[in-house]
């Protein structure tokens, strides 16, 4: 029996429970979409089926601007998932979005410099060669 590859074990795309389907459908359509409680309007973390404020399961998926600041980061020296389609070492960052009170994890691309907490970043939807679904990557914001 052949050993499983990382892409077979940890593929990109929606979870089996469907709680993050709107996020992935949004990326396919070229937008960052996040869940918002249909009952009280509270923004949710992707994959969370229940509103933390009112406990409603009803949600909508709304497009948001993919821009924010680096909240945290880590450099990885080992390739963990083949569908990441990036060379090691790579930097994962947690981004505090500007327009909604949500933080998202993603890869930082387009720079060899280590990020600093508070650095401005913008999201970019990419389609890795060996992934079925597009992914959201982050780049340093270029001053206008």
From TrEMBL:
Name of the molecule in the record: OB-fold domain-containing protein
Domain (ChsH2 C-terminal OB-fold) ranges: 61-121
Lineage: Bacteria, Bacillati, Actinomycetota, Actinomycetes, Propionibacteriales
Pfam family, any one: OB_ChsH2_C
Signal sequence, start to end: none
Organism: Nocardioides daeguensis
